[in-house]
């Protein structure tokens, strides 16, 4: 048999492939590492840091890992659903004991990112090219994942950087104009990048619009416990879930257990009228993507949550992180009355009203590294560098201190 080559195609598969845009935050890590200045400050990548600038392993995690190492009998496959005991252990932490958790089908995923990816793919197999509304601004990962999967992303306004306030009425109006069946991405708490969360009344108002318009909520809950507390940070998610038949919740344990590189998360799906169909599709998609999720992080979380003492230790460590973040917020808000809103916001991020030129000047002139949008990781600020940061900001933007 003679093989003929299609001459209309280039011989080299990759010949016409354009460069992918670099990951800006990862480039920032490299620039920071290469900066020789001793007083440099890293406010870029979103990991928690303690007062000494470290991201230590939780003591509860260390204890659970020791137990896992001693007691694990097999590493045989678990299945596409993941560790069902892990899923059962995190469910009440997220949804409480009440009806919010009813009819939810959980799947363990590689981190919150994996949960969002699986959510997007499930939505896309159900309705190819479905519309999804995403807050402007939001974590850039949202838009990237949804577009990569083929969903049509539409922004809704949610935050005014200059006044550090939620744009709640414009947000509600945008949601009210969505088409029935459109998906709405909401961040459950500790909004990335703004830190500005909805109040309970605002969650109720959003829920009403969702229910009335027949929208599908996709809630991203990636920082539970780092805002106001485990219960309070899940309250909005629970309000929505009390009211809808169809919902998706992407959850991450990577921040609140400090497990970042262990990729620990879950997707919770509710499809009251087609539960089995959606379940079968979600498991098939998980299988096509990663087959089965990584085990270690989930096993650690399971061990912690099945043990009263370790759970208490974990909660205590989480309380400490939250208290530190609150202190940094209060300190900054005191220094910068114009950004007083920082004290009421939650989580590790704040979005400062800085232009790309300001951000570049902060880096070049003062060795302060942050995302080009003006997002800072507040956990990067410590007793040692906080005044340096404020001085740099004053040098760069004196008007903010007027
Ligand atoms: C809002 C938000 N959602 C999801 C994620 C993904 O979390 P994970 O590291 O568990 O994949 C992040 C990570 O930064 C995030 O900020």
Describe the structure.
The protein has 402 residues and is of the alpha/beta class. Helices cover 43% and strands 14% of the residues. The chain is built from 13 helices and 13 strands. The protein has helices spanning 24-34, 59-71, 84-95, 111-126, 140-149, 168-176, 200-213, 230-241, 275-289, 296-305, 308-335, 356-366, 386-396, and strands spanning 41-42, 105-110, 131-136, 152-157, 159-160, 165-166, 183-187, 216-221, 246-252, 264-271, 349-351, 368-369, 375-377. It has a seven-stranded mixed beta sheet, sandwiched between helices. It has a two-stranded parallel ribbon with strand order 1-12. A two-stranded antiparallel sheet has the order 5-6. Helix 4 packs parallel to helix 5 (140-149) and helix 7 packs parallel to helix 8. The longest helix has 28 residues, at 308-335. The radius of gyration is 22 Å and the shape is globular. The mean pLDDT is 95. The structure holds pyridoxal-5'-phosphate.
Descriptive tags:
single chain; 402 residues; alpha/beta; seven-stranded mixed β-sheet; two-stranded parallel sheet; 13 strands; globular; binds pyridoxal-5'-phosphate
In short:
By secondary structure, the chain is α/β, with parallel strands linked by helices.
Oligomer: single chain
**What overall form do the CA principal axes indicate?**
globular
User: What can be said about the biggest beta sheet?
Assistant: 7 strands, mixed
Encode the helix/strand succession as letters.
HEHHEHEHEEEHEHEHEEHHHEHEEH
- The helix/strand class is alpha/beta
Mean pLDDT: 95
Bound molecules: pyridoxal-5'-phosphate
Strands side by side in the biggest sheet: 2-10-9-8-7-3-4
For the termini, the CA-CA separation is 81 Å
Number of helical stretches of at least 4 residues: 13
The value of Rg in angstroms is 22 Å
Instruction: Note the beta-strand portion.
Output: 5-15%
Q: Low-confidence stretches at least 5 residues in length (pLDDT < 50)?
A: none
